[in-house]
Design goal:
Blueprint lengths: L1 H26 L8 H26 L2 H24 L5 H21 L1 H18 L2 H7 L1 H5 L2 H18 L1 E3 L2 E7 L2 E3 L1 H17 L5 H20 L3 H19 L3 H20 L1 H11 L10 H13 L22 H9 L1 H23 L4 H25 L17 H25 L25 H4 L38 H7 L7
Helix pairs in contact: 1-2, 1-16, 2-3, 2-4, 3-4, 3-5, 4-5, 4-16, 5-18, 6-18, 8-9, 8-10, 9-10, 9-11, 9-17, 9-18, 10-11, 11-12, 11-17, 12-13, 14-15, 15-16, 16-17, 17-18
Length: 515
Amino acid sequence: MEQFIVIYSRYIIALLAVLYAVLSLVRSFLSPRKGRAVDTAQSVCIFIWQFVGFLALCVETGDLDMLFFYAFSQITLFASMTLFLMIYPGMDRAVLNHMCFLLGTGFLILGRLNLQQAVRQLIIAAISLVLSMAVPQVVRTCGHLLKKLTLLYAGAGLLALLAVLILGQVTHGSRLTYTVAGVTFQPSEFVKLLFVFFLAALLWEDASLKRVAVAAAVAAGHVLVLVLSRDLGSALIFFLAFVFLVFFATGKYRYLAIGAAGGCAAAFVAYRLFSHVQVRVQAWRDPWSVIDSQGYQITQSLFALSRGGWFGLGIGQGTPQDIPYVETDFIFAAVTEELGLLFAVSLLVVCVCCFLQFLRIAMAQQDCFYRLLAAGFGVLYIFQVFLTVGGGIKFIPLTGVTLPLVSYGGSSVMTTILLFAVVQGAGLKRRALSGGEEDHDDEADYDDEADYDDEADYDDEADYGDDEDYDDEADYDGESGYDDEAGYDVEDGYDDDASRGKNDRKRTHSGRKGW
């Protein structure tokens, strides 16, 4: 009976993961109101495959502690889903489901690899989820304040990175962490969030060459400190975030070309200067020639990937522990070996759907600050996934970047949960502005794809393109989200600075040149 459960659980888990991935793709093309049934089906899929996976793991290990871990992990996921939706009824449920799916994957595979680390991950995730419940409200209501903290974002980020460079602990040859009051964390993970806030606050109103130059100087400072700390994976992520946010703010493709050329030049310089970069490139180019030394990690990862097959060996049946640092750098190989290629591909589909939802939220924004925030966090997220998975499958050299919400790492899981919460706040801001589901009952004829009902001849591109279309005497009443005297109503979700001028309003709406 025990062997039966372990063997057949892998088929159930793989098929449920595929079903969830298909529903995620379908959900990407539906509005929140039309996608409610899909959202519910996804939530059910998550808890069923979690039950099957942990049942097989408990049977395999015979460890009673695993049963308690399963119970607390499911309580955490269920409570987060329920409380977020109770506090924010208009929250993007698809993004919430994806976050819980990824967290659940991490709980299961980490529980199989190292229960002690899995418990730590669960505790940090639970604390992060509690803290993040206030984030959407802050993002939604304090936009005017958040836009004014440009110098604070840049200064705090640089100081945190400098503190690591000077006082940090060396981990695998790089200065990544430092300890405060017995708690060890990686500041570069938190600085990523500040960095995106800095770029959005700097460029949302004025993306002129002067401001781009200022952004480039601050970005160079962040990247330089990370390079000196030998945290090259994070340096690459910061650089990519800068390039794409400048492109989003300006809409000029030449910045992408300049960024690509600069990135290639920086990669060549890093290869010439740092011996550990040369080692990683050698292990990437021909790991088999150094299989007993520099190529051991990547070859063991490739072996694990090839052993899994479509449905995996079954939870607890593989040997992912043979891969050094499997909990952090090679978690994707462990997932593929024991849960199968179908599950691994479904996991990547969910990650891509997260990115698409972030972009969808960004493109729906009328306020460029929130648009840049959501898009910037989407770039951070998807490139981190690419670097982790690409390194593990030998598509690119290893970077030491973790898989968000799945790999072991307290700082990583906390910042990623906060990242998701900020994007949710941006989505809530947009729905409040457009009179979305959050402000209307279920019978209201509003759709996430349109800001007005079908009888109205309003269109975002047609009616909000030019500054002339706005007039302080326009016939909008307070119930529609506009105020005749101020232009914006704080209670309806508008920016709390009701006295912004005509130029500010022009930058806020879609007539702004840029992405």
